[in-house]
Amino acid sequence: MTRQYIDCREFPSTMNCSVALSADSPKELLEAAVQHAVAVHGHEDTPELRHQLAKMFKLGTPPVTMPSAKAA
User: Fold this and answer.
1) How far is CA 42 from CA 7, 17, 23, 45, in A?
2) What is the pTM assigned to this prediction?
């Protein structure tokens, strides 16, 4: 299996969360991402949340630093 990740730094928020999660299976990553979204960001564990999170998964591992935001 190919490692996958999801990175909160890619989604601006008021708390500037810098957590990135990775796992070898999509099921394992989804469970970790849901737990983080509920415990830290106050989301409710719903099928819709799970679907949205799963769509955000990327192949590989999270970068050490995120690219700078583009100038408007």
Assistant:
1) 17, 13, 22, 9
2) 0.84
Please tell me the predicted confidence (pLDDT) of residue 69.
Answer: 47
Domain boundaries along the sequence of the chain? 4-59
DSSP state of 8: G
Could you tell me if 43 and 49 are in contact, meaning their C-beta atoms sit under 8 angstroms apart?
yes
Residues 6+ positions from 8 with CB-CB distance below 8 Å: 17, 18, 19, 20, 36
Nearest-CA neighbor of 53 among 36, 66, 40, 67?
A: 36
CB 19, CB 40: distance < 8 Å: yes
Residue whose token pair is 């469970």: 31
Cβ neighbours for 32, distance < 8 A, ≥ 6 positions apart: 21, 23
